[in-house]
Design a protein that fits this description.
This protein is α/β, with parallel strands linked by helices. Helices cover about 30% and strands about 20% of the residues. The chain has 6 helices and 7 strands; from the N terminus they run βαβαβαβαβαββα.
């Protein structure tokens, strides 16, 4: 499978254009008020309308109230949902939309169990475990903790930079 690039936390039109011009396959819009990259429903709707063809829109939620998610889905045409909190598989599937589940990885994380628990997920987004923070820390985790033969596509997140992204692709095959 080819490597795809998702840029998350888009809040401005100029950043959307820059990410698309650089070849991003998907752009993420954060609907989590505690995030510095939070975007309002109205702003996200305007940004998604500006996406070129074949660039996917992804809505990121953290333990969101189902009514809020439904409200977002009524206004913003999202292609994929991304759940970053303590949501169960039932919580994630309730919207009838394709989704990915974020997993904060540390030595105690059983990624094979996560893949089984979230069997309807299109993939697992793997991010560093930082206590009290649901993701987006920019921290790298030990990629050796990812078991070979993980039965879900991996979306690698956290601490990726120009000096390590080639190694990440070679080792993890996201």
């Amino acid at each position: 499978m080819a490597v795809r690039v998702k840029i998350c936390g888009i809040t401005r039109l100029q950043d959307l254009h820059a990410a698309c011009d650089a070849g991003a396959d998907a752009l993420g819009f954060v609907f989590y008020e505690k995030s510095p990259r939070h975007v309002t429903i109205e702003a996200a709707a305007a940004l998604v309308r500006a996406l070129p063809p074949f660039v996917q829109s992804v809505g990121l939620f953290v333990n969101a109230d189902p009514a809020f998610v439904e409200n977002v889905l009524d206004v913003v045409p999202l292609d994929l949902l991304q759940f970053h909190g303590d949501e169960t598989a039932t919580d994630c599937a309730r919207y009838g939309r394709p989704y990915i589940k974020a997993v904060r990885v540390n030595r105690d994380t059983d990624l094979l169990k996560c893949a089984a628990d979230f069997d309807a997920a299109r993939g697992l987004l793997l991010d560093a475990f930082v206590p009290g923070v649901p993701g987006g820390t920019g921290e790298r985790f030990d990629w050796n903790l990812i078991p070979s033969g993980l039965p879900k596509p991996v979306i690698l997140s956290g601490g990726l930079a120009p000096d390590n992204v080639a190694e990440a692709v070679e080792r993890v095959h996201p």
